[in-house]
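Open question from group meeting: does this chain pack into something compact, or does most of it stay loose? Before anyone orders reagents, we agreed to write out a predicted structure and look at it together. Recording both the input and the output here so the notebook holds the full record.
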Amino acid sequence: MIFTETTCLPFWANESSNRKSINTLETFLKAEGIIPLNIKIVGEREITCEFCDCPTGLAYHVKVDKSQVGEMAYWGFKLK
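Structure tokens returned:
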């Protein structure tokens, strides 16, 4: 599943550390009962506009069991 980051950063995003972003996202998902099998961040953050819906260039890729796809979609993740 993929979450494309926008300039209104998700609450788990840490602007200075991808590792911290991954750790926070993993902790959040586990608290929601979602078991992330793998999490990686792809791309480079580059702010090109100030509006909330502008992509930053980063995408969060999270591998989960098929049974948890619906829960991930609830949080804004899309199928890869």
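Observations to bring back to the group:
The longest strand covers residues 55-63.
The chain has a mean pLDDT of 95.
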